[in-house]
């Protein structure tokens, strides 16, 4: 089975999962206590106005009719209309999604760039002081909540030392005339990276620690494999063994944990965006729940679910690229 056919097959497998996500999200959102119309209109709205608004957003229809209308709309790319923002849900999400994607990509880049070398060094110097230090560092990283790391970074590096900003985020493609302190597009990019430092460390530390532990154990196993012993017997240098023979095979468990960490980083983004006052998808879903905005809650949850499914598919496809022994669905 070729790569394209395998990708289409995996995408087809996600369709029932997507239907399940939409159905569960719809039922749970409509089970939330409270009336979004009364929240929007205040404590003492007139009955006529409530009925008018409910009819406008289709909330006066039976549950099964609303479900059918909603799932039909989702199939056509329509996630409904936000009561709180008075705009289509897709427009609100399109405005916030890039912020969260940038934060997630930077956190993953930080985690992988630090965890892979750290795990390799730890495996190569097994049971030596460097290995012990790396394992303690990884254990502390796994055990510490992301929001607590964020608060400590704000107190130390922002308020005490005044090195980095404690809130806000600038998109790299923002117009330089709208960004204070930037004279050209390069200045905007640098300011964006400057604002991303603390949120990236706070969000990426947990992933970095988890990947370091997996990288170390996988590299230790790979360095003691029979084919590596044979390579050593033939006089192959340790650097060549580490780079060409042990490293590539050891990355399969690392790719698995990176794919699984996608759900963790999505959940962490909700807390980190709140701590650093970043207007991304995380804060949007909290605002939607607080306002009982059913359509927006469902839309953001579906986007989070789709993001996780895309990560799982990319992880599966990466297996065959990393390890030639893995085939695309062939028996």
Q: Which geometry do the CA atoms define? A: globular
What is the tally of helical segments?
Answer: 12
Report strand order across the widest sheet.
1-2
* SSE ordering: HHHHEEHHHHHHHH
- First and last CA, distance: 10 Å
Structural class by SSE content: mainly alpha
Number of strands: 2
Task: State the helicity in percent bands.
Answer: over 70%
Note the beta-strand portion. Answer: under 5%
Largest sheet: 2 strands, antiparallel
* Structural Rg: 24 Å
In round numbers, the mean pLDDT is: 84
Describe the fold and architecture.
This protein has 331 residues and is mostly helical. The protein has twelve helices and two strands. Strands 1-2 form a two-stranded antiparallel sheet. Strand 1 (81-82) and strand 2 (87-88) form a beta hairpin.
What are the salient characteristics of this protein?
12 helices; 331 residues; globular; mainly alpha; two-stranded antiparallel ribbon
């Amino acid at each position: 089975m070729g790569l394209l056919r395998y990708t289409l097959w995996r995408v087809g497998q996600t369709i029932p999962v997507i239907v399940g996500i939409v159905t569960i999200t719809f039922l749970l959102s409509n089970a939330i206590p409270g009336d979004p119309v009364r929240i929007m209109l205040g404590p003492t709205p007139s009955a006529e106005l409530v009925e008018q608004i409910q009819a406008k957003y289709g909330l006066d229809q039976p549950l099964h009719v609303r479900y059918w209308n909603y799932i039909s709309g989702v199939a056509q790319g329509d996630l409904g209309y936000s009561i709180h923002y008075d705009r289509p849900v897709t427009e609100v999400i399109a405005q916030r999604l890039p912020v969260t994607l940038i934060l997630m990509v930077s956190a993953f880049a930080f985690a992988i760039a630090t965890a892979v070398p750290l795990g390799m060094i730890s495996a190569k110097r097994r049971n030596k002081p460097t290995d012990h230090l790396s394992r303690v560092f990884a254990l502390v990283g796994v055990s510490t909540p992301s929001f607590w790391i964020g608060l400590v970074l704000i107190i130390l590096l922002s308020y005490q030392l005044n090195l980095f900003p404690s809130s806000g985020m600038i998109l790299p493609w923002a117009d330089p005339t709208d960004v204070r302190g930037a004279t050209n597009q390069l200045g905007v990019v640098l300011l964006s990276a400057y604002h991303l430092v603390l949120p990236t460390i706070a969000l990426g530390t947990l992933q970095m620690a988890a990947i370091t532990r997996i990288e170390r154990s996988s590299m230790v196993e790979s360095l003691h494999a029979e084919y590596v012993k044979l390579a050593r017997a033939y006089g192959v240098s340790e650097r060549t063994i580490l780079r060409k023979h042990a490293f590539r095979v050891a990355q399969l468990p690392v790719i698995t944990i990176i794919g699984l960490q996608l759900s963790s980083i999505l959940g962490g983004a909700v807390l980190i965006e709140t701590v650093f006052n970043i207007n991304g998808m995380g804060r949007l879903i909290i605002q939607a729940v607080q306002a009982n905005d059913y359509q927006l809650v469902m839309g953001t949850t579906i986007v989070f679910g789709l993001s996780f499914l895309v990560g799982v598919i990319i992880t599966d496809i990466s297996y065959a690229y990393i390890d030639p022994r893995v085939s695309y669905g062939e028996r």
